[in-house]
Design goal:
- The complex is a heterotetramer.
- By secondary structure, chain A is α+β, with helices and mostly antiparallel strands.
- Helices cover 48% and strands 13% of the residues of chain A.
- Chain A contains 13 helices and eight strands.
- In chain A, the strands form three sheets. Chain A has a three-stranded antiparallel sheet, with no helix packed on it.
- The radius of gyration of chain A is 20 Å and the shape is globular.
- Chain B is built from eleven helices and no strands.
- Chain B is an all-alpha fold.
- Chain B has one domain.
- In chain B, helix 3 packs antiparallel against helix 4, helix 8 packs antiparallel against helix 11 and helix 9 packs across helix 10.
- Chain C is 17% helix and 16% strand.
- Chain D has a single domain, classed as Beta Polymerase, domain 2.
- The chains are: A alpha+beta, B mainly alpha, C alpha+beta, D alpha/beta.
- Chains in contact: A-B, A-C, A-D, B-C, C-D.
- At the C-D interface, loops of C face loops of D.
Chain lengths: 360, 282, 103, 123
């Protein structure tokens, strides 16, 4: 038994790009206990909903996070539309779904790059981000924003995407699939990567359930927790199965995300094939009524819960976001216990933390 | 007189060569990663900038340890080019490393501590293989003197292929390349930040960097020694080795210290000892 | 398990043009839809203050009496909403980003 | 999510605790906990989900009232409870990990707990 040392990890650390602080109690290089603390980027965006018109608020909601921004915008607008009992044009729903899947591919490629970086595999990191660039380019071309798409508005989307562009979006993947397969081969077959990922950070199905894990963390432990199965937007018209792995280790979580990239490609192609013609937005009349609504969406990082409470005015009475990172922190603490110090960044990343989402 | 000139030439030219190598390393690495990369002379700009920085020493003794590190690295290189005893050269380099580790231990920073511990593990990992190299060279040339080994008319690689490959294996860690860049990585994207170098800054860090340039030149000189009978073959081998290390760096993730230790010893036992055993029986 | 599955990608990249660009020396081709920065043609502006009221970031300041219009580029989130609500359509979204400054 | 899948159940604290234990045995997972300020005080929503539909247990409390933590039943609850404590200034007892108000670093203590000011939009 070695001497116990406390290593302060974060909130500013070259590997951990998120402002999360962990006090790691280590014994030699074994982590005995991890104690999280945060609160460095709390911006009070929930409170801001009381000061911003509900029609303007999607801009703020999208800026809760820089990676899954589109799903935040989508969740907010869906929540408001449900609260106001609006039925938005079907084409708008399809466009939102297509962009949501683009944002998922973007997020997963970004995450894979960061994982490679945490493993000290720089060329793989750069290659993932090189692939991601193509996704961002087409999103910028169609929505006007690379990171914050700005597509979702209450009642629809901001601009239509014409048929030739949609066809090009679908065709984009015929060229990109080879790239995806290449990185899939590296992440899942490379000896050094495998050596690091396999059997590290195992989370059993029971633990994942008890600790309320969501998204790829839960899916990696064998729980098919995928909010898209609720069929919001047009997911009920698309054919897909939740990706599930049973091992529960970092390798399983990586596999889930890689498979989800391929799944998203399929979903985008299905949606583009099915998209009907028509309007993409509707005029909003009236105000959010007195009432409340819960909206669950599957963000790239996992399930997000939106709660809106209207009071009959332009401003919401209460707006609440619970994103996936918040729900996955207890699972993170569980997998950090007993791990090696060298695995800490990789394990923290394996839940794909986004602290600015979690703190809002 | 000739020896003195050689030593002076080494002291002057080695950092230039080492710096250029570092630049080339970064450039080649960038190309492999589809990036443009920094200018070739960037390492020199970096060091010049580090010298101009405000000097903040966390602990006073740090400075002397770093100075000792630099001096002993230069000394080991100088002994090498002067054609002295190979074992002396190897132990002088080990001593230099010990000073770096002491420097890392002299501050109370957990990152620095863990880095120093890992540096010790890395020393344990590569030292057997380096000593086997010296023994192998002795068994072929019947001398530990670098001058005699260099003057040996036969190509050492022909008789020591296992040892050569084993040396390349541990060199990955010594040149701070993935998968064995445990204690300190050039990219600082590591769980222990800069590892042993976490608490060095300004002029001290610049000195460490220069020491690494000397050390890399010396290590590649060791590679060259295998091909000393044919100079251009030696230069080719050095270039190939260098490219191979950059290539491996861009092709693997960082591994754990347990794996580094085990695999280095296995490499030393199988490739190194195997080669020695073969040498005894032929 | 395969040894060095990355080798192919790395070697390919070694002999190809870099994917990165030397920004800002070389700027990329922007798309017509790109939200770069907000411009206001003050010649046609009636200083109604609509953009100021609608801006989610509070980045625009309009003083009608002084015919004053100013945008704080550090607060602006380039959401395009001011351009959408402008009654005179004198505001436009430039597709180029604000150039980086060195000071 | 379709509106009919969300059920809100109002209850008292002791009843809530027994219900939470029962839900755990039934295999529910904790989805979220959040607090809302209402005219008569505060209400806390506990959302649980079994596969996909969810159940909301709702309790009404006053500012001074002590709320027992459910982190002994669902360990993940400590994050939500610390959040409620820091943002609304409510007293939650026996949390698994208690940050004692240092979970969120807000410049104003309990910013969400104050009465809503009449705001006309904008800054």
């Amino acid at each position: 038994m070695g001497e116990r040392t406390v290593i302060p990890f974060g909130p500013q650390h070259p590997v951990l790009l998120e402002p999360l602080h962990l006090d790691l109690v280590i014994e030699d290089e074994k982590v005995v206990k991890a104690m999280p603390s945060w609160g460095f980027v709390h911006r009070g965006l929930e409170k801001l909903a009381e000061k911003r018109d509900f029609i303007e608020f999607p801009f703020v909601a999208e800026r809760i996070c820089g990676v899954c921004s589109h799903s935040h915008g989508m969740a907010y607008t869906q929540a408001i539309e449900a609260l106001m009992s609006l039925e938005i044009p079907v084409r708008a729903k399809y466009l939102r779904t297509i962009l949501a899947e683009f944002s998922r591919i973007n997020s997963h490629l970004l995450w894979l790059g960061l994982l490679a970086n945490a493993l000290g595999f720089e060329s793989l990191f750069m290659h993932c981000w090189k692939l991601r660039e193509k996704i961002l380019d087409i999103v910028e071309e169609t929505t006007g924003g690379r990171v914050i798409f700005g597509a979702c508005r209450v009642g629809g989307v901001n601009r239509d995407i014409d048929a030739p562009t949609l066809a090009r979006m679908s065709r984009l993947f015929t060229g990109m699939e080879k790239g995806f397969r290449e990185i899939d081969g590296v992440f899942r077959k490379d000896y050094t990567v495998q050596k690091r990922l396999q059997e590290t950070g195992a989370l059993s199905r029971a633990d994942a359930h008890l600790l309320g894990a969501v998204g790829p963390v839960a899916k990696g432990s064998g729980i098919p927790c995928d909010m898209r199965r609720l069929g919001y937007s047009v997911y009920n018209e698309l054919d897909f199965q939740a990706v599930v792995e049973t091992e529960g280790d970092s390798y399983a979580r990586t596999s889930v995300r890689i498979k989800e990239i391929f799944q998203s490609v399929g979903l985008i192609q299905q949606a583009i094939a099915k998209i009907p013609a028509g309007e993409v937005s509707m005029k909003i009349t009236g105000l959010p009524p007195v009432g409340e609504h819960f909206e669950m969406v599957e963000q790239p990082r996992g399930e997000a819960v939106y709660y809106v409470k209207g009071n009959g005015t332009r401003f919401l009475e209460r707006f609440r976001v619970r994103n996936s990172t918040f729900a996955n922190i207890p699972a993170l603490l569980k997998i950090l216990e007993g791990c090696e110090l060298s695995d800490v960044p990789m394990l923290i990343l394996s839940i794909d933390p986004c602290i600015s989402c979690a703190e809002r | 007189m000739k020896t003195v000139l050689t030593i002076v030439l080494f002291i002057v030219a080695a950092p230039l060569a080492g710096g250029l190598m570092a630049g080339l390393d970064r450039k080649a690495g960038a190309w492999m990663q589809s990036r443009v990369g920094p200018p070739l002379l960037q390492p020199f700009y970096d060091v010049a900038k580090l010298f101009s920085k405000q000097n903040i020493a966390v602990h006073k003794s740090q400075k002397y340890y770093v100075l000792c590190f630099l001096v002993f690295v230069i000394l080991s290189g100088a002994l090498f080019v002067a054609g002295q005893d190979l074992l002396l050269v190897i132990f002088a380099l080990t001593l230099a490393d010990v000073f770096l580790i002491l420097g890392a231990y002299s501050v109370r920073s957990p990152y620095s501590y863990v880095g120093a511990e890992r540096e010790l593990v890395q020393m344990m990992a590569y030292e057997p293989m380096v000593i086997i190299t010296a023994i192998g060279m002795y068994m072929v040339t019947k001398s530990f003197s670098v001058a005699d080994i260099a003057a040996f008319e036969q190509n050492l690689f022909v008789k020591l292929p296992g040892i050569f490959i084993g040396l390349l294996f541990v060199l990955t860690g010594k040149l701070r390349k993935s998968p064995f860049d445990l204690s300190m990585s050039h990219h600082a994207h590591q769980e222990i930040v800069g590892g042993v170098l976490t608490e060095f800054s300004g002029a001290e860090l610049a000195m460490v960097k220069i020491a690494y340039w000397y050390q890399n030149v010396f290590l590649l000189g060791l590679v060259c020694l295998f091909f000393a009978s044919a100079f251009w073959l030696g230069v080719g081998a050095v270039m190939l080795t260098f490219f191979l290390e950059v290539f491996i760096d861009n092709n693997s993730a960082r591994l754990t210290w347990q794996f580094t230790l085990a695999s280095s010893w296995i490499a030393a036992a199988v490739l190194g000892m195997g080669n020695l055993v073969v040498l005894i029986f032929i | 398990m395969r040894i060095l599955p990355m080798a192919k990608i790395v070697l390919k990249s070694l002999f190809r043009k870099a994917a990165t660009q030397m920004y800002p020396l070389i700027t990329k081709e922007y798309y017509p839809a790109t939200r770069g920065k907000v411009l206001n043609d003050t010649e046609f502006c009636i200083y109604c203050g609509m953009c100021q009221r609608k801006c989610p970031a509070g980045a625009i300041e309009v003083i009608r009496a002084k015919r004053y219009w100013a945008l704080d580029p550090k607060r602006c989130v380039t959401c395009n909403y001011c351009v959408e609500v402008c009654p005179k359509k004198c505001m436009t979204m430039d597709k180029r980003y604000t150039a980086p400054s060195t000071n | 999510m379709a509106k009919e899948l969300i059920v809100f159940i109002d209850m008292e604290i002791p009843e809530m605790l027994t219900r939470v234990e029962a839900l755990k045995l039934e295999g529910y997972r904790l989805m979220q906990i959040h607090c809302t300020r209402v005219e008569s005080g505060y209400e806390i929503n506990y959302t649980f989900a079994l596969d996909l539909p969810s159940q909301n247990l709702r309790i009404h409390i006053d500012r001074e009232q002590e709320i027992p933590s459910i982190s002994g039943i669902f360990p993940a609850a400590f994050l939500y409870e610390n959040e409620i404590h820091d943002l609304f200034g409510l007293n939650i007892t026996d949390m698994l990990i208690d940050y004692h108000g240092r979970f969120y670093r807000t410049s104003v203590p309990a910013p969400f707990g104050q009465a809503k000011k009449d705001t006309g939009g904008g800054e």
